[in-house]
Queue: 2 jobs
Job 1
Amino acid sequence: MRLGGGQGFYGDGHRPVDDLLAAGIDYLICEALAELTLAILQKDRQRDESLGYARDLPLYLQQAMPYLLDGRTRFITNAGGINPVAAGRAVIGAARSMGASGLKVATVVGDDVRPRAAELGLPDDALFASAYLGARPIVEALEAGADVVITGRVADASLFLAPLVHEFGWAWDDYDRLAAGVVVGHLLECSGQVTGGNYSGRWWENPDPMRIAFPIATVESDGSAVISKPPDTGGMVTFDTVREQLLYEVHNPAQYFSPDVVADFTSLTLDDLGDDQVRVSGTRAADPPSPDTYKGLVCTPAGYAGEARLVYPWPDAEAKARAALAFLRKRAEENGVPVEEWHEEYFGVNAFGGSTVPKDFEPPEVIGRLAWRTADKESAGRVAGEVGVLGLSGPPTISGMGRGRGGGPSQLLAVEAFYVDKKLVDDQVRVEVEEV
Amino acid sequence: MKRIQLRDLCGARSGDKGDISDLSLFADDEAAYDALLQEVTADRVKAHFAELVTGEVERYEARNVLALKFVMHGALGGGAPRSLRADNLGKTHGATLLRMWVDVPDDVAANAKRKARPPLP
């Protein structure tokens, strides 16, 4: 069984997807939803109720269509975001306009628990509240013959586990195999991050770095797998690139929680087979192996933010930038702008490293970045109104950063995790299959 | 013993979950892994990040892939969609930890495999 990891976030590249399809994969799986993505999609839906899904979904469909129509490949994605029904409609519309026929499109709904916020003790001003569903509804869709499966907030790795359960007939209490499937999914869910992208080793030795490939997993019925990439593509698959992705954002590696199983990532073995192939085997489930809740994310409004970036050259670049930011803060105070939080960063000095950065050098230039949070949008805009004064009445030698100024106020959103009884969610999950 | 900066000794990758920064360090052999285990404790990491991390730091071991995992709470200014930080996703935290200096056995320092630097055009 060959799975292709076709997307790692909303906005990822499309060309490597063509390479995956041409290399031959049974399933193209596109993972579109980081925690931050749901907040971005929420802003879309606030503007237009028919949005709230990843809008590049039809483009993936178009790439995959020849392979879908001749039955070589099926397509699974959580690009439905917080509006899978609208995403499903968009896919069906796009498939019709491409002249497709006989294509079965399944939509999975039921991850949205916002209507039950009160019952679940969630804030009543929640903009969205979504539970991370597991692989089961996707398996149901595949069993109904779906060629395309569109979901909302399904856990990243479960998108990949589902076709393995479907094809190999794994039982839902065959926890070690489920855990192995979750590992495969976790390795593929960030696209190029397992094939040389973001690699912290000798990244400059990536072959053909302009064409970092997306990954393929060739999975056996016992759950072991070989991670590889399409031929004649860039990037690399090595022990080192695979282990960097294996532990990415997993917290306790001995207890990686997915909705379907708790996997023990410390139980597995990685073997570098050479030629861009790494074998992963021996994965076991943790004890206890099954979580009794689903994790969810709830989003509430959290005020507004604005920011200004001011650039000063040597000499004394940091001192000038600090003086400029102090000026802006003082003016906001004098103008009575109700700022709830300030944040100063000095690029070239310590913006990322904070106090871990040694202070034994004088930088050639410094960018002072001031960010602020206010309760309302108008106040966030008022602070930036004083930036222009710095042009002639601030510290000397102010510069810009080329064209394109910092944007206007943007809305902040608070996203918090919660846990919800599985049965409560399962009872509202539905799989709808429509033939184009 | 010899003093070495982590950038010469191991790889690192970091990411986010809510207001938690999740960071991994990767050793290249067992001896280096044991040295990291000894030197890079949760307490030292917490002290290293100072004002950047306001909550607790937990450490986990994954000897099967010669890696240490650090889960740092209160590390992202409230979480990505709410944070005022430029790095609201904690992507740079791995690099920030590589700035730490540690004391390791002479042979571990001599065998450190991350000393190569990328060429500049």
Job 2
Amino acid sequence: MIIAFLQTATIPTVRQPVIIGVGIGYFVACAAIGLWAARRTKTADDFFVAGRSIGLVPFALAAMAATLSGFAFIGGPGLVYAIGMTAVFIILPASITNTAGAWVLGKRMRLLGQVRNLLTVPDAIGARYRSPAAQGLSALAILVGVVGYIATNVLALGLVVDALFGVGLVTGIWIGTAVTLVYSASGGILAGIYTDVFQGLLMAVASTVVFVFALDSGGGLAAISRTLQAVDPAFLGPWGTSGAMVALSFFFVFAVGSLGQPHIAHKYYMLKDPRRLKWHPVLMTVSMLLAQLLFVGVGIAVKSLVVRGDMAPLARPDDATPLFLLQHVPVFVAALVFAGVAAAIMSTVNSFLSIGAAAITHDLPKAFRGARGGGVRPAKETGAASAASGSGATGASGASRALTAGRLWTVVLSLLAAVLAQQSGTLVAFLGIFGYGLFACTLVPALAIGLNWEGATREGAIASISLGLVLTLVLETGAWLDWFSLPTGVTITGLTLVLSMLTFLAVSAMTGGRAANQLDGDVRAVMQL
Amino acid sequence: MNKNSLVLLVGGLLAVAAGYAAVLLDAGPPLFPATALALGASAVLGALLRLGARRGGSIPDTLRLASTIAFIATAIGLLFALAAPPPADDGPLLLGLPRVTAVMLLCTGLVPLVLLPVAYARAFDIEVLNETDLARVAELARRAEDEERERL
């Protein structure tokens, strides 16, 4: 499950010596871990898929950390405060998607990655459909979504840094970008994974501790419920104050859409031993459950405190977490949570930088060359072509160029995002909004269905990716420009996701006669396991 | 087996589409859109789990049972909440939450949350990925590597 909503509103200043100290310690620790890991980054394989050497616990913690953005700590509790149970439907699908990721995508992505030496999610699509066009289109969709997503997350990071250190938003953006860039550009996803472990642990611990304080502040869950029932029975009713359609739309979009998030799917390539997938859902479930306790706990506790008059009504819902931490939690715990917010954002940014750089340096060149779908052996194994360069360069020089290109584009994307993040808030919010939906609408059909159904065809994949890309961009732009608005409960992502999935199935059915010829033997073998 | 999963998937997607269409067109009974979305979303998830569990031409028993229970529990939880009367200011609590909310969360949240990872781990060595599968994959990887060498 992805917490895709993004933090774009300012955060109340939380400057206190302990919080500043912990904040500095956190950033230094991230940079140090990243630099340590960066020394192990010697090939493009290391840079983009962590050398396929990640153990189960780091893998699960990294997946959890990349899944949750800062929204889980600030915007999410604020939304619960504002609309009650309706907002819980954003995280409720995690009960299924924590396992569905491994169940539907994990095994086949991991095995196909091993057989074809795949580096990216578009690689898997290219290999599955033997189609450079499908690979290129999916890479384009990822690139479009990634730029906006990174910009919005960088803005969120700037807001957190500003709240912590009072340096101003622009300086905050550059500080956050610099620290993330230190390990992302030098160590790529390998460094990202190790910092994710630290960040994921921090998020889970901080969330759990604050949840206990939240329940305690309201006198326990039953007392909180009674308080809220008395003033607004719908708030903790099954659908919250926004009603069943909004809640169910959240449920559908976040449940199904989670299977199309490239920064999560991409991580399956990194698992060293595919047998470890066995325990991945259990670990993912436990870590996600802990990391999301704050989301619900703070939202309802603050509402209850406000109703009882123990807290002043909030000026904005997003103030729920910062004000609760400052007023009801020991300062050291508050400091941990603020570091946890930064951790959630930075781990997400690192993942997006990696897949964005890979789309530019690997997938798009490969699509333009019309190469056979799938990766090739890296130089260290065959002394031949570099997997990631997409340039056809050979030998060690090709591998080195691929690594350099990955680093270079990571820097370029970071700087672009930092500049974009300083533009108008509404533009940045707009860029961020369609990221999740774009990934869902373009990747769920071709990946989640296509890797599990031999009858899926190249034509179906290309049609659904194209439709998802065009519809999302056109409709989100139209809505942003106020050309139209949809009734409550109907979302652009929900509509487009349904249409792209149905298109994929319909076109595949119509062109089904070609399906058998579009599957390479090794891909078919993996799909039958 | 694939056919049943695909029928469930298409049915679920059409139900979701019908729910959205009813809201957009402002047509149909008041509860229809939410009911269609609840059933459709549950069916789509159930179908994707079934497709993902497929091995060769069939779905292994443990995963089939777990995905079916998860689908039914999710649908029941959502439909129960839709059918329940509007929340009252003095309604009964269960586990510290309003009773309808708690039942919905137990069915839609807790059942799949516990069942699916446990079923997956229990079934893994036999129904998901065994040593023979791994040997086959290693062989495929070796062959792909050889082909790549020859091509270059």
